[in-house]
Amino acid sequence: MTATPTHQASELEAKKQLFDMMLAFVKSQCLYVAARLGIYNLLSDQGEQSLSTIAKTTQTDPERLYFVLRALAHVGVLEEKPDRVFAPTVMSNLMVTNRGASIGHLAMHLLEPAQWNAWNMLEESLHTGEVPFERANGQGVYEFCQGDDWSGDVFIKAMSFFTAHSIEALLDAYDFSRFKTVMDVGGGQGGLIAGIVKRFGCKGILFDVPYVAATAPAYLEQQGVEAGAIDIITGDVFVEIPTGADAIVMKYFISAWNDEDAAKILHNCKKALPPHGRIVLLQAFVPDLDEPKTAPDGIMPGIFAVQINVAVPGGGWRTKKQFQSLFEQCGFRLEQVVDTTTNLSAMEFSIAG
Ligand SMILES: C[S@@+](CC[C@H](N)C(=O)[O-])C[C@H]1O[C@@H](n2cnc3c(N)ncnc32)[C@H](O)[C@@H]1O
Fold first, then answer.
1. Which among 164, 148, 146 is positioned nearest to 99, based on CA atoms?
2. Per residue in 126-156, pLDDT tens?
3. Atom number of ligand 1 nearest to Cα 191
4. pLDDT at 314
5. Region 268-276: what's the mean pLDDT?
6. Which residue has a Cα nearest atom 24 of ligand 1?
7. CB atoms within 10 A of CB 311
8. Which pLDDT value is given to residue 86?
9. Where in 64-199 does DSSP place strands (E)?
10. 189: which of 40, 158, 219, 300 fits an S-S bond (Cβ 3.0–4.6 Å)?
11. What is the model's pLDDT at position 256?
């Protein structure tokens, strides 16, 4: 037997990776469609099921459905047993969407048709500079979610899942106890501010647009937040940010905006804060050349950044240095950077001069 030359071995490895990348969209779509059909919920609630039962319950054609379920079994999302019986797995149980916010909501948000259509505009947008989502759907992602009940619900829950995923690691790593009142700007349903208030005993303010903030009271109650511990204020960051907090947190918020809009938001933050106030920017940061490309929880910020850039005008996320320079141009000074054991890091800024 002759040994495979090194360059051929590496070419084979490279080809394997390219095949995998090329077909990654198939995995995404199968994952998404099974969530839409409620198959993860069904298997989690009722245990393993035959193909014919799943097809009947989901009103789908069994032969066509089988291709999707088999593919999901081949990548470990489901388990296929003899006689076309499918059983739940750890992954499918994580995808369940009928017991509160889950990674299944994030998958449905990222893979729904309005987002998918935006990808068709990626090449064109590289020439024109337009936001692909806006080009494909005639409106921004926030307006779109506001106008569509299903998409709005899925978006809000996707964000809540993402917060729940990283909050404990953040609260272990970053001490909010020195602040009297913390305001989460663009805080969604309030998972982050609820965690801060409960762990550190400070007062909280949740600031978001009305349709999102409307879902917060029920969510905060579920999180065991005492009545009165968090004020919910609605409005538009581009118009005015409420006063009353000595720290503003913004998680995955500034990253949705280009530098010009981000500067307007930072200007309004500055007006809302006292002179000793702080902004705590919470984000995954795109790594510089010499930094690891994958966050401890497996998320690759440089990959995720393309998704954000397709969906919103956010400049493809930013590196820590880019954020620092953006904040410095707006009159803030970097005080500290705190990494956590998830994709989330904190950059704390004070008001300069
Ligand atoms: C990407 S989500 C992040 C939510 C939350 N911070 C998190 O990490 O889960 C952005 C949030 O900003 C809110 N938002 C968007 N435009 C806004 C505006 N002009 N004023 C206030 N909030 C806004 C959205 O409703 C949404 O809840």
1. 164
2. 999 999 999 999 999 999 999 999 999 999 9
3. 9
4. 77
5. 98
6. 186
7. 23
8. 98
9. 79-81, 85-87, 181-185
10. 219
11. 87
Distance CA 224, CA 222 (A): 5
CA distances from 251 to 65, 163, 218 (A): 39, 9, 21
Nearest in space to 101 (alpha carbons), one of 53, 55, 57, 165: 165
Alpha carbon of 111 to ligand 1 centroid (Å): 19
Q: How far is the CA of 188 from the centre of ligand 1 (A)?
A: 6
Protein residue with least CA distance to atom 14, ligand 1: 186
pLDDT at position 1 is: 55
Say how far apart CA 53 and CA 60 lie, in whole Å: 10
Cut 0.85: pTM above it: yes
Q: Which of 208, 215, 240, 250 to mutate to test the pocket of ligand 1 (most atoms within 8 A of CB)?
A: 208
Q: Is 168's pLDDT higher than 90?
A: yes
Looking at ligand 1, which atom is closest to the CA of residue 237?
20
Ligand 1 atom, smallest distance to 238 CA:
19
CATH of domain 6-99: 1.10.10.10
Q: Tell me: the pLDDT tens digits for 50-74?
A: 999 999 999 999 999 999 999 999 9
Each domain of the chain, given as residue ranges in start order, spans: 6-99, 113-351
Residues within 6 Å of ligand 1 by CB: 142, 159, 162-163, 186-188, 208-209, 212, 236-238, 251-253, 256
Asked whether the beta carbons of 208 and 253 are under 8 A apart, the reply is no
State which fold the 113-351 domain adopts: Rossmann fold (3.40.50)
